[in-house]
Amino acid sequence: MSLFKKNNYLIIPILTGVFDFIWFYFIIYFAHKNNLLFSINEVTWNTITTKFLIDFLAMLFIPSIIIIACKKQLSDFQLCMNSKYEIMALLGVMTILFILHNEFGILGLYRFFFYLVVIAFGEEFIYRGFIYNKIKSNSKYLAIIISGTLWGIMHSILPSIVSNANLPQFILSICSEIGGGILIGWYYIYLLEKSKSLWIPTLVHAIIDYSVSYIGTIVAIIIFFYFLKKSRTEKYNS
C-alpha cells in the first residue's frame, strides 16, 4: 500500500491511459463487428445518432467521467482561459476553416464538432491534460515519454481493427506509432506549458486535423514560434 501511495503519481495516470485504449478498443471493435462504425464522410440524418453515440463512448466518455469526478480541480488539468486572446484567434481560424470547407449541412457541422471536440479535446484532455499533468510534477521528461507512448498506442487501434490485423501486425503498428506519439505529443505539451491552457493545444490539434490545404501546418508553425518568442520576451523582462 505504501509503495502504491508513493508512486500513485505514476501508477494512476498509466492505468488511466491503459484503461482508455482498452475501452477504446472494445467500443471500436464492437462497432466494427456490428456495422456501426461510420466514417466522418458517412454522416447523414440517418446515421448521426449512431455516429455521435459511438464517438462519445469511444473518445469522450472517460474524459466526461474524470471531469465530473474532479470538477473542483479542473485547473489541475489546465482547463482554464489563460492565453485568452490566443484562444480567440485560434477559434477564428477554426471558423475560417469551416467557411472554406463550404459544408453547411449536417455533415459539415458534425465534421467541425468531430475534429474540435471528439478528436482534439478527447485526446488532449486524456493524454496532455490528465496523464502529462499528473506525472510532470515528478519528471517532465518521463511525463512526455509516457503520455506520448500511450497516445501513440491508441492511434494504432482503429487501423488494426478495420484491417483485421493479427497480433504481430497489431504489435508492429503499435511500435510504429510510439515514436510519432512522443514527438508530436511533445509539440502539444510545449504549447500547453507556454500557454498555460489546455485549450491552445486542443485548438491547434483541431486546426491541423480539420485543415484545408497547408493552413493547419502553417498555423502550427506560427503558433510554435509565437509562444517561443513570447516566452523569451517574458523571461527577458522578468
UniProtKB/TrEMBL annotation:
<feature type="domain" description="CAAX prenyl protease 2/Lysostaphin resistance protein A-like">
    <location>
        <begin position="109"/>
        <end position="210"/>
    </location>
</feature>
<keyword id="KW-1133">Transmembrane helix</keyword>
<dbReference type="GO" id="GO:0004175">
    <property type="term" value="F:endopeptidase activity"/>
</dbReference>
<feature type="transmembrane region" description="Helical">
    <location>
        <begin position="52"/>
        <end position="70"/>
    </location>
</feature>
<dbReference type="Pfam" id="PF02517">
    <property type="entry name" value="Rce1-like"/>
</dbReference>
<feature type="transmembrane region" description="Helical">
    <location>
        <begin position="203"/>
        <end position="228"/>
    </location>
</feature>
<keyword id="KW-0812">Transmembrane</keyword>
<feature type="transmembrane region" description="Helical">
    <location>
        <begin position="82"/>
        <end position="100"/>
    </location>
</feature>
<feature type="transmembrane region" description="Helical">
    <location>
        <begin position="170"/>
        <end position="191"/>
    </location>
</feature>
<feature type="transmembrane region" description="Helical">
    <location>
        <begin position="9"/>
        <end position="32"/>
    </location>
</feature>
<dbReference type="GO" id="GO:0080120">
    <property type="term" value="P:CAAX-box protein maturation"/>
</dbReference>
<protein>
    <recommendedName>
        <fullName>CAAX prenyl protease 2/Lysostaphin resistance protein A-like domain-containing protein</fullName>
    </recommendedName>
</protein>
<feature type="transmembrane region" description="Helical">
    <location>
        <begin position="141"/>
        <end position="158"/>
    </location>
</feature>
<feature type="transmembrane region" description="Helical">
    <location>
        <begin position="112"/>
        <end position="129"/>
    </location>
</feature>
<dbReference type="InterPro" id="IPR003675">
    <property type="entry name" value="Rce1/LyrA-like_dom"/>
</dbReference>
<keyword id="KW-0472">Membrane</keyword>
